[in-house]
Amino acid sequence: MALLIILNTYLIIILAASQPCQTPEDFVAATSPGHIMIGGLFAIHEKMLSSEDYPRRPQIQKCIGFEISVFLQTLAMIHSIEMINNSTLLSGVKLGYEIYDTCAEVTVAMAAALRFLSKFNCSREIVEFKCDYSSYMPRVKAVIGAGYSEITIAVSRILNLQLMPQVSYESTAEILSDKIRFPSFFRTVPSDFYQTKAMAHLIQKSGWNWIGMITTDDDYGRLALNTFAIQAAANNVCIAFKEVLPAFLSDGTIEVRIDQTLEKIIAEAQLLNVLKNVTFTDGGNSFHFDAHGDLNTGYEVVLWKEINGHMTITKMAEYDLQNDVFIVTDQETKDEFRNLKKIPSKCSKECSPGEMKKATKSQHSCCYECVNCPENHYSNQTDMDRCFLCNNETHWAPVRSTRCFEKEVEYLNWNDSLAILLLALSLLGIIFVLVIGIIFTRNVNTPVVKSSGGLTVCYVILFCHFLNFASVGFFIGEPHDFTCKTRQMLFGVSFTLCVSCILVKSLKILLAFSFDPKLQNFLRCLYKPVPIIFTCTGIQVIICTFWVIFAAPAVEENVSLPRVIILECEEGSTLAFGTMLGYIAILAFICFIFAFKGRKLPENYNEAKFITFGMLIYFIAWLTFIPVYATTFGKYLPAVEIIVILISNYGILCCTFFPKCYVILCKQETNTKSAFLKMIYNYSSHSAGSLAMSHVSLDSTNSNITMAKPSFSDKSTAWQKSKDLQAQTFAHICRENATSLSKTLPRKRMSSI
């Protein structure tokens, strides 16, 4: 019986479609009466026959191009309704249907929709205009269809007038999920949003980014194209070309299976709300409409593959739109997925880690060239749009790096070859200091040691040299705040004390051998050894104290170099550092002036000449230090100051003590009291003779000048002054020699000398 009904329906549909529409009944493809009527819209024919009339007449033309797959869908609807009517599901209620062939034409579908909205059980095919359709009884209660999204969108606009439920089996346009514009629309297929999302996901998973797109020229195709373009851009996939084909083309090689069939029928009352909450199962899977009227189904991913000249369609996976994943069932399918990655579909080669994409003149973002990441930048993934910047303070990266490397902390290490050399020189200087101290201690009563100011002064100077050499150790090794403060203060105070002692010695030498009464009186008033040393050193202590209190040196990390962090001492105040060095330079300059004035003293007693050389070495070293220190950068900056300290310290030590040690060790015959007295006597006699001769010359000059004058009294006065000056000079020489002899020899031998 069911087969007879289906065959009868088949003949009716064929005959109805082959004849032009004469009456409204001729327009109906298939119908069956019932208490509740359900409308159906199916594109049983491919297209409507074009009219040859011009202008075109407002009539419905006959359809051509029979579509067997859609016809089977129509029969599935009829079969479902008959199954329900033959069951006890709706006892006493018979479902009827009224199915129309849209011919894949919006105009035909709109005509069918108008008939759906016509009044129920009315002899005339009319649609009443009302402000409120709540009590209006239309011809059908619900509509199944249509297939094409373009037709569904147009029909749904009209059906919304009466909020007539419409359930589509194929329309996937994303816009239909908008419940503001399509409040009564439902569908049993997912939205194109998920379809395009799945496509973009699959393309990205296959490693492609350069694809072409073919779509149909209708609402479905255009909306899908726009949606896919957005999804593709989000997945860094570029569309090389877009081809739009005419809508409703048939392809005999494509067989579309029936995806879903209705399992439940719709009750008459509150049909729209029931549809929103309906849930049904099929094969253990549960289905329901979401808030947008879309069914929670997924997609099947199929692979078109040509084998031996024949095109085969193989199911590869299922796409779960809820979790956005592909479900693969067997190993063979997984292998097929892997093979997709072997198919090249890229505009440009993949940029490896350590590279970044650089845009070319192409308008597509997928067309680019790969360039290396610059220094201090890195990229750790493929096809990165930009390289990330390393933290320049703590990390660095070479060109084309895949990661950042931690900067190495550097300073003048104890193991550094230069540091070892400087330490060796410092230790050698300390050894020299100790050896000199031993030599002077063992020869404490010799004239050389006594002429050096005594053992106490020598010990003080040697101790200062020891501290200067020892301060080198504070410049080497990992800097700390304590070492940064100590090294400059130790050097500044000890060197100042050393120069202060040498200044006192220079002043003493100049005082001892000065024969100018006025200069000698001035030097005698100025010569206060202990106050001078304490005052000069105390000023430096005050400078260093203020420096430590207000701008103390501290450890600083120099991160300006690209690959290393220089751990160095920041002096705190350049002004304080310069003041400390400048003060030492002033004392050294005064010492140099005094020593220079006494450079022609007796040879064995002449420290002044060597002090002059020592001060010259100091000035040359520190004048060289200023530009070198200002231009040197890096971990060897402390070595510059160490070298200058060693040079100046060695210069003063060698010039001050080495000549005396040479006399003590190698010329012992000159290191006796008698030798010293003889040397002083000869020097005093020579100096006195020179002074007398200078006065005689002065007297002769004065006499000549006086003779030019006519006054006899002036001549007598000049001659008398000359005689007095000579007497004073010889008296001064004798007095100084007597004083020196009395201090050096015993009284019993003084008369013979």
Task: Explain what the structure shows.
This protein is of the alpha/beta class and 753 residues long. The strands form 9 sheets. It has a 6-stranded mixed β-sheet, sandwiched between helices. Strands 13-14-15 form a 3-stranded antiparallel β-sheet. A 3-stranded mixed β-sheet has the order 22-24-23. The longest helix has 35 residues, at 673-707. The radius of gyration is 58 Å and the shape is rod-shaped. 30% of the residues are buried.
How are the secondary structure elements laid out?
Layout lengths: L1 H17 L5 H4 E5 L3 E7 L2 E4 L14 E4 L1 H18 L9 E7 L4 H11 L25 E3 L4 H11 L6 E3 L16 E3 L4 H14 L4 E7 L2 H16 L3 E8 L25 H7 L1 E4 L2 E4 L10 E9 L2 E11 L4 E3 L3 H11 L13 E5 L8 E5 L4 E2 L9 E2 L5 E2 L8 E2 L1 E3 L6 H26 L4 H5 L3 H16 L10 H32 L4 H10 L2 H23 L2 E5 L5 E7 L3 H24 L9 H25 L5 H30 L6 H35 L4 H33 L2 H4 L3
Parallel strand pairs: 2-5, 2-6, 6-7, 7-8, 9-10, 22-24
Antiparallel strand pairs: 1-5, 3-4, 11-12, 13-14, 14-15, 16-17, 18-19, 20-21, 23-24
Helix pairs in contact: 1-3, 4-5, 6-7, 10-12, 10-18, 12-13, 12-18, 13-14, 13-15, 13-16, 15-16, 16-17, 17-18, 19-20
List keywords for this structure.
753 residues; alpha/beta; 3-stranded antiparallel sheet
Strand ordering within the main sheet: 1-5-2-6-7-8
**First-to-last CA distance:** 167 Å
Radius of gyration: 58 Å
Return the structural class: alpha/beta
Uncertain ranges: 10-18, 252-265, 691-753
Summed up:
With 753 residues, this protein is an alpha/beta fold. Strands 1-5-2-6-7-8 form a six-stranded mixed β-sheet, sandwiched between helices. A hairpin with a 2-residue loop joins strand 11 and strand 12 (285-288).
